[in-house]
Specification:
By secondary structure, the chain is an alpha/beta fold. The chain has a single domain, classed as Dihydropteroate synthase-like (TIM Barrel), CATH 3.20.20. The chain has eleven helices and eight strands. The protein has an eight-stranded parallel sheet with strand order 6-5-4-3-2-1-8-7. Helix 2 runs parallel beside helix 4, helix 4 runs parallel beside helix 5 and helix 10 packs parallel to helix 11. It is globular and about 50 Å long. The model has no long low-confidence stretch (mean pLDDT about 95). It binds pterin-6-yl-methyl-monophosphate (PMM). Pterin-6-yl-methyl-monophosphate binds next to strand 1 and strand 5.
Length: about 290
């Protein structure tokens, strides 16, 4: 067990953080448009806070395999009012929960920051918009770089690796070097292996079996496997039909325990309470035997 990392400017409760997802989209694979409506998205954010979310990750663009880009103005229209309203919640104002914006665009990141976001979650790691890293550096806020090989529309054609574990590690190291050279602060940079992005199910499982290698990057790590397709395949019916996304939450909570055991900084999940419980179990298992009287 290594020391749990802390990211400057974000909650640091001394355990793996739980980030709750709010997709303000009509077409995300994982929740199929349930929170596309503004009020439903804000209500969902309040529910995730009540379940114990440390971070709310608000996005307006679906990145499911095959998805095409959303119009920039539409992305702003979906996300900024939700961020602004949730920024008024007591948990956010008091710093117990932080807001993250899930975007590949610098302009969305900038407006989200002005509306109250303190983390930019960029699945492209700065590769989709050349203005993103300079803007994130200028804002001085925390920044997630995910392993990414191209836009969702054809990313699965780029799922070719000799060794997925070492190639993901090397590509993330190069992204991080670029971000740091451009002024992203070292205490605010987070890396993410990007489960399901230009990866087959087997690639995801291989990465999951070698999470320790990602710690060689020396950065806080984000784990985002919630409800992803490879879990649907694993849990398929006897006739081969994949388990639908809403039926993948128990498996997701098991993976949260796996991530917490591997000292991940945070997990990004659609249902917060089971993951908070999984983290609590791992924390309790780690307590020294002398504290076992209770
Ligand atoms: N996956 C999705 C969206 N955003 N952000 C990060 N950092 N890592 C991920 O793996 C990731 C992400 C996929 O879609 P979903 O929001 O429907 O789960």
């Amino acid at each position: 067990m290594t020391e749990l990392p802390v990211v400057a400017g974000l909650p640091a409760p001394g355990r793996t953080l739980v980030m709750g997802v709010i997709n303000v989209t009509p077409d995300s694979f994982s929740d199929g448009g349930s929170f596309f409506d503004h009020d439903a998205a804000v209500r969902h954010g309040q529910e995730l806070i009540a379940e114990g979310a440390d971070i709310l990750d608000i996005g307006g663009e679906s990145t499911r395999p095959g998805a095409s880009r959303v119009d920039p103005e539409e992305e702003l229209r979906r996300t900024i009012p939700v961020i602004r309203d949730l920024a008024d919640e007591p948990a956010i104002r008091e710093g117990r929960t932080a807001i993250s914006v899930d975007t590949m665009r610098a302009r969305t990141a900038q407006q989200a920051y002005q509306a109250g976001a303190r983390l930019i979650n960029d699945v492209s790691g700065g590769q989709a918009d050349p203005a993103m890293i300079p803007v994130a550096a200028e804002l001085g806020c925390a920044y997630v770089q995910m392993h990414w090989r191209g836009h969702s529309v054809d990313m699965q054609s780029k799922a070719n690796y000799r060794n997925v574990v070492s190639e993901v590690r090397e590509e993330l190291a190069r992204l991080a070097d670029r971000a740091l050279a451009a002024g992203i602060r070292s205490d605010r940079l987070v890396l993410d292996p990007g489960f399901g992005f230009a990866k087959t199910g087997d690639h995801n499982w291989e990465l999951l079996q070698h999470l320790d290698v990602l710690h060689e990057l020396g950065r806080p790590l984000l784990f985002a496997a919630s409800r992803k397709r490879f879990l649907g395949t694993l849990l398929a019916d006897p006739d081969g039909s994949p388990r639908p996304p809403l039926g993948r939450d128990d498996a997701t909570a098991v993976l949260t325990g796996w991530a917490a055991l591997h000292d991940f900084w945070a997990v990004r999940v659609h249902t917060v309470r089971p993951s908070r419980d999984a983290v609590a179990v791992v924390e309790r298992l780690r307590r020294s035997p002398e504290s076992n009287s209770s």
